[in-house]
TrEMBL record:
It comes from Alistipes communis. The lineage of its organism: Bacteria, Pseudomonadati, Bacteroidota, Bacteroidia, Bacteroidales. It comes from the Bacteria. This is Shikimate 5-dehydrogenase. Pathway: Metabolic intermediate biosynthesis; chorismate biosynthesis; chorismate from D-erythrose 4-phosphate and phosphoenolpyruvate: step 4/7. SUPFAM superfamilies: Aminoacid dehydrogenase-like, N-terminal domain, NAD(P)-binding Rossmann-fold domains.
Amino acid sequence: MKRYGLIGRPLGHSFSAGYFAAKFRREGITGCDYALYELPSIEALPELLGAQPELQGFNVTIPYKQRIFDYLDDVSEEAARIGAVNCVRRDGGRLTGFNTDIEGVRLSLRLLLGDDLPEAALVLGSGGASQAVQYALAEAEIPYAVVSRDPARGNFLYDDLRPEVVAGHRLIVNATPVGTFPHVDEAPLLPYEALTAAHYLFDLVYNPERTQFLLRGERQGARTLNGLPMLEAQAEASWRIWNGVI
């Protein structure tokens, strides 16, 4: 049995196991399993690897996309530039880190924006997922500012987000877990009344399908996209990496 999985904490919201189970059925893939491994800390990773010798590779989610670096033997050039890893391939005792989030972000931006490149973007959050978003925005030559709870890691604090700031950034990306199931009534702190039909909202959260962040944007006429296309794209890229296609 070839095993794959997801590490992070918490994982009760994750669709990854369901996605891969459906993929295995749809494509007639046998002898494979994908499971959720909720680790109390990243220091528990060696114990997991020792208990799961058949684990061929795994995805990494909050809060370990940056902390995983200390446990890797090698990192892809792109993951190193992004500064976050969400996919690990295991070759014997050797662990190599990759970033497949970037493929999902690229696809999502194309789906949401089309040919309309906003003059500026706001990226909510400064963690590992945010790093991939920032990388993709830089590639697309869309200027951006980062909003963080930590003044050392962002251009704005949430208290700084006046209506004029939101009005001047037509693309807003939620790269935080705020609004994820079961906390479906929560939303990032924004002056949503400043949003217009010219705004785009991209939420990396995919459970629920329509977060409060997206719903509040839609009420103002903004165009929105959730994290499902990103989940699917990064999962397929991870599968290719684990199976030596990349």
